[in-house]
Amino acid sequence: MASDGPSPTGRIRRAHLAMQRCADAIFSPRKITTDQYSLLWFVNRQEGIRQNELASELFTDPNTVTAMITRLEKRGFIRREVCSEDGRARRIYLTPTGRRLVARLSDDWEPMRRRLREIFAGEAGAEALRILDEVREAMMSTREQMLETQTQRKRTGGRRRAAVGSAAAAAPARASTEAGLG
Q1: Where are the domains of the chain?
Q2: Distance between CA 161 and CA 152 in Å, rounded?
């Protein structure tokens, strides 16, 4: 069967990577990655956001967020404070230097933001954005289902693996016997 180019998965990935590379080129003179800009942008929008909420907003794991926060904190762009409601949690704030950086980065990104608005203008663009939202929702739902299935398997897997292991060990012996080799 002939293909009309990359699959939907390939097209989405290529668009994402092209955008990421463009953003990296825009932000690299300021020695900031696209992911770091995203983190700073969210903190700017939600001063005092909890570190774990930030990981959820960025669709990344908490360890990655912790590493980014540590780097940005060392550079003086953000600060962490212990959460008054939960002493184990940390709230993230921009420093004045961080606020100035976010303003500069946002200005640097504005031509790309404008270009993307142009691309997604009109009915076709609105439909494309609706489809992208649908893809995200479907993938998030599928991910949650898969994680739940994996968790259930882990809970019952030990007993099942032992039974499967015994059956698997018996199968070659049985096959050898049936083939006249045993």
Answers
A1: 8-108
A2: 13
| Structure-token pair, residue 154 | 């882990």
Which overall architecture, per CATH, does domain 8-108 show? Answer: Orthogonal Bundle (1.10)
State both tokens at 73. 């904190």
Helical spans, DSSP H, in the chain: 8-27, 34-45, 51-57, 62-74, 96-119, 122-178
Place of tokens 């939202």: 133
Tokens of 54: 């930030």
**For residues 3 and 29, what is the distance between their CA atoms, to the nearest angstrom?**
40
Residue-wise pLDDT tens digits, 121-162: 999 999 999 999 999 899 989 988 998 999 888 888 755 555
Q: Are 38 and 109 in contact (CB under 8 A)?
A: no
Residue 80 — φ and ψ, nearest 5°? -110, 145
Q: Which of 82, 79, 93, 95 is nearest to 47 (CA)?
A: 93
Please tell me what DSSP assigns to residue 5.
S
Q: Check the CA dihedral 28-30-32-38 and report its sign.
A: negative
Cα gap 136→132, rounded to integer Å: 6
